[in-house]
Structures are given as structure tokens and as C-alpha cells.
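Trying the structure run again after the queue cleared.
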Amino acid sequence: MNIIHNNPYRIAGILSSATTREFERQKGRIKAYTKVGKEIKSDLDFQFLVNISRTEDSVNKAFSKVQQNQEKVNYSLFWFLNVSPFDNTAIEYLKNGDKEKAVEIWEKVTSDKNINSKNYSAFNNLGTYKLLSRYKTDIKAGIEAKIKLIESDYFENFVHTVADKTYTIDNQKQSEILIDELLTQLKNRYSSSDTLELFSGCKGDIKQYLFKKLAEEPLHKIENQIKSCKKKRRAANGDAYEFGLKLVTDCKDDLSFLNSLLGNVDIEYQAVADKLANEIMQCGIDYFNESRENNSNENYLDQAQKLTKIADRIATGKLTKDKAKDCLATLEEMKDQEVNKAVTLLSSIKLAYEKAISEIDNQVSQMLMTMSYNQTINYSKVDKMKANCLDWSKVVEVLSNGISANDVAIIQNCSNQSKVLDYKNLVDFLFSKLGPIQINKVKYLCYWKDVRAAQAKSTAKKIGRTAVDTASSANDASGGCLGEIFSRIIGFAIILFIIWLLSVIFD
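Done. C-alpha cells:
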């Protein structure tokens, strides 16, 4: 810990409990050494500390740093003082390189003990030593020893030992100064969660201050990530989906840490969470609008939904969550837009066909009621009228303009299987009425199966109708019942032959 290794008291070569006379004597000694160019050494250069090289300038700066009372207190909390016989013995052990013995002495007068007038310095000294450890358990113990000292009724004794007897101090403020310095020293050594664990012994106001300080960096990082994402999104809406996903990834750990630190009810957490959620949501919206306008082949609706769902999970405020829900509802409606449009168009064609068929049937019924005894209905002509009741070439044109291949691709990925089934049934109905050339023009509508069988069936029906029409003409010429029967037999035989022939061709 740099503040200990390069503590002004260490550089000056004195303990923080040094009297004014000792302080001045040490200054004079060092000044004399520098005049003759003699190397400045101190018996407080403990072996467990890193080596330092003293210069006249560094020593002068060290003395100047501990002139004011507040600085004396601040730096003393990260150094050693000699107040009791225990301290004196332990420090001698440290000078001789026996740190285990020194720790044993200080632990003996501090373990499971309350702070009093005889051991407050031991708490400080042991805490300073523990802070130098590479083990988190030791550092945690060192922090707790320092906080316990500052919060105790005997911290005043500590202050008056290292500063003027008349100097008064705010314990809460001093705890905050200590925490600030510790966080600075521990930065980049531990993760946020590990740092939080090191301070887990803090309580009350100290804990709240710690949380506030620990929250500053992740809050700042999230704010910067949002700002950066917003700038990139505005410059390239088409890439907003990727920007949104990256924002989620970049802020995930910091947001999670803030949540564990502050909780959902904290105002600062709610503010940054809602701001993050709104930017993620806006990435989805901008990406959707840009992709739709440019007829993108990407599944942009699902991608926009994905970002919006993430935003909904992050959001805490009612306004932001309501916005996310409204956005999801709108996207859900638009998700079935293509299949709804296709079903509506196909349904209207089927309805027009059924209406035309119904009108033909009504006409036939009326003719049956009014025709004379020896008159008959030419049902082959009726069938032909029904087959041609709509201008199927015009229907194909309308379908080509109304349902694009991109629409069908979206329908194929639609999760609403009930609507997809309706679409498939309507396409099957349509293909049962169209000719092979007409089917070929809109075969992309039938993405789930090969349309060649439908084309073969349509061709067979068309040729079969031609055969029946021919036979029907012969029947009209013969005028007899046997002719009609004979014509139907011939027509049926031709149909069977054509179906067999086409099945061979399309196999």
C-alpha cells in the first residue's frame, strides 16, 4: 500500500507519535547528513517494507506534509506510533525483523478487546501492519481496526498523541477521509465486489458513505456508455441493434454491482437503470424503423423485441416500464402484420369465389323450377362456369402485388401457428383453383411443400374439363340420355389417363 511505504513519517524517519523536540532533532540530523553527502538511513526502515531512496528534497517534502494537524492525523492512521510498553516492545521486534513477535504482542492486547486508553495505539499499529498484507482477510481486519479506532471514544487520545492537544476532530468526517484514501489505495487491485467484501464490517453512516463512494465509478461508467451508444445510434440507425446489445454487455456487471450495493429502491440506481433501459429500447426502435423502411431481409422485428424485453427487465420506474410494455405490445401486433395481411387478402378471394358459386347455384335452382319436362341442365357447363367464376389471372396479379416473397419469409418465421395454419389452408384452396401456369407465378406462397403436385393436379383437371366439354357437345348433338352417359364415361377415362401421365412426368 503506497501510502504506507511512502508515508511522510517513514520518509522523515520518525514515528507519528514523535514529540516536537524529536521532530526538530530529526530534521536537524537529516540536514547535517545532506550537507556532508551522507546516505540518510533510519531504523524504522522495516524489512517488510519496500526500499526507499531518500533525498534532501523528498525529506523536506515529507516534513512539510505533516505540519498541519489534519495531515498529521491522516498520515498517522497509515503509520506506527509508540505510546505504550506494548508498542515499544513490538516496534523493537519490527526493527530486528521479527514481525511475527510484534504482531503477537499487538494481537494479545486487541483480540476480542474494546478500545481503551492503553491499547488504542495497538489497534492502529496492528491495522497498519495488516493493511500491508497480500491476503484479503488481513486487509479486511486492518480496515476494521482503523474504523473501530476512529469510532471509539478514545480516538481523541490518538488525535492528541499525533497532533496538538487542543485539536478537535469530527469522527464521521475522519472515517470518510480514511475510506476515500483506502479506496484510492485499493483501486485496480480488487474488483468492486471484492472491495465491498473488504469493507463488509462497516456499519451505519460509514456503510452508507462507503456505498455512495463505491457507486460513483460504476455510475459514471454506465453514464458514459449510454452517451457513447446514443452518439453511435444517431449516426447509424441501421446498426442500432448491435449498439444496443453491446451497451447491455458493457453495462451488465456495473449495473449488477450497483443493484447489489444500492438496491432497486435507491433513487440513484433507479435513475441510471431507467436511463439505460430507455437507450436500449431506443436502439430497438430506431433499428426497426430503419430496417422496415429499407425492406431489410433481417428478422428486425424479433431483434427489436429482444432489446425491448431486456429494457423492460432493467427498468425500475413506472414510466419506463409502461413505455417498454407499450412498445412490446405494438411490436407484437406488427409481428403478425404480414400473416394478417396475407390471410385477409386470401380470405377475400375465397369469399368472392364462394359468393360467385352461390349465385350460380341459385341460378341453377331457379332454372330447375321453371324448365319444362323434356329439358335438362348441362352440368358440365355449370362446372365450367364455376371454374371460371373469377378472373384467376387477375387474382394472381393481385396476389403478386399484395403478398411479397419477403412477406412469406416473415410468415414462415411467425410464432402464431394458428394464423399460419389459416394461411396454409387458404393457399391450398387457391392452388386448387388455379392453372399450372398461374400456380407457377405465385408458387412462392407455398413455402412448406413442393407445388409440382398441385400443378399436375390442376393440369389434369383442366384437360379433364376439356374432354368433358367435348363429350358434352357430342351429347348435345345426339340429344339422348345415352349420349350424356357415354360422354361422361369418356371424359372420366381421359381424366384418369392424364393424371397418370402427369404423375409420371412430375415424379
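Confidence is low (pLDDT under 50) at residues 473-507. Worth checking whether this holds up in the mutant runs.
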